[in-house]
Amino acid sequence: MTSAQLKVRTISPAEHLAHVEQVSSVSFLQTPAWATVKAEWRGESVGWFATDGGTESLVGSALVLYRQVPRVKRYLAYLPEGPSIDWTDPDLERWLAPLADHLKRQKAFGIRIGPAAITRRWHASTVKKAIADDALGSLRETPADVVVPEHEHVAPTLQRLGWKQLTSDGGFAAGQPQYNFHVPLVDADGTAKSEGDVLKGMNQLWRRNIKKATKAGVETSRGTRDDLADFHRVYVETAERDHFTPRPLSYFQTMWDALTAEHPDRMSLHLAHHEGDLVAATTLVQVGTHAWYSYGASTTAKRDVRGSNAVQWQMMRDALAAGATVYDMRGITDTLDPDDPHVGLIQFKAGTGGDAVEYLGEWDLPLNRPLHAAFTAYMRRRG
User: Fold this and answer.
1) Whether pTM exceeds 0.90
2) Which residues, including other chains, have CB under 8 Å from residue 225's CB and lie 6 or more apart?
3) 91-131 pLDDT per residue, tens
4) Interval 337-381: pLDDT, tens
5) Which residue, of 1, 14, 120, 170, is most buried by count of CB atoms within 10 Å of its CB?
6) Domain that holds residue 88
7) Alpha-carbon distance 110 to 336, whole Å?
């Protein structure tokens, strides 16, 4: 693409979806349907347009979520894991400047973005060795197996343009995680892996647990919207056991309705039963070639039959069959300290044989500094 001037304007959900379907994948948080899921925010689809020889074409898109500042009709404009633009372009200003101009007209006092651009990768074997190395306390201190050169310019460019990276605690920020775990479903040359290839990449414990679930008689199946209530029951049990606040059933019903209306296979529910008892349940979201494990739940009873491993393996197989190139296990912290309770999560996910990946993180651009500072202080007080 040349460095022609780009224009940003509001587009319809249909135009937005058409752009999503033209690219290999965007985050499901950047689909027009996600605005329906996040109804407490005001949603807007925006598009970047290039003109060539008098013909205008849509070359980028984003879902903007607006959160109003208390008692003032001004908004934080949030683009979770977006926007969907060409982050390899050395001239990012031509993308971001018209976005800022558009959002100013929409009465935004600040912009928050989360570029879906990977900067570094660590293979599972590297993660395992780093955890055992007393000299390494975090992923960011660990030499990466892969550095993505086409994204090395993004952070310094954002800084030059006045954007500020949000600080995070070990990779977990208030928004989306900076560190995720990916299981590649294709080889380096893009050839799709077989189920045997994916299974072979797992460590011995994962393979043994999958085999144990099969031997114990665990059966996996795809659920329907009606099964969300059963999923939610186990999810609430998981929340109580793991000490987090569960979302209500209505949230998952809204998510199901919105995402499957956009594409019938956008969201799926996966269940693991043992002798008629539901022992594990998970949700999967897929946009193009990217599949995300989004929510998981398991019962305290019958944990020894390894329903969670069985249902994860089934989701990977389904994602592979649906043409996905990556199975995304979502967020991890970057800690490698064996005494940190979070390290168990990265060890569990590393057992799949995939990669820990670092994204650029979330970045803020104040458009009205006093309002932006006041809103930041307000959100900090809310926790």
Assistant:
1) yes
2) 253, 256, 257, 260
3) 999 999 999 999 999 999 999 999 999 999 999 999 999 99
4) 888 888 989 999 999 999 999 999 999 999 999 898 888 887 777
5) 120
6) 7-114+362-382
7) 34
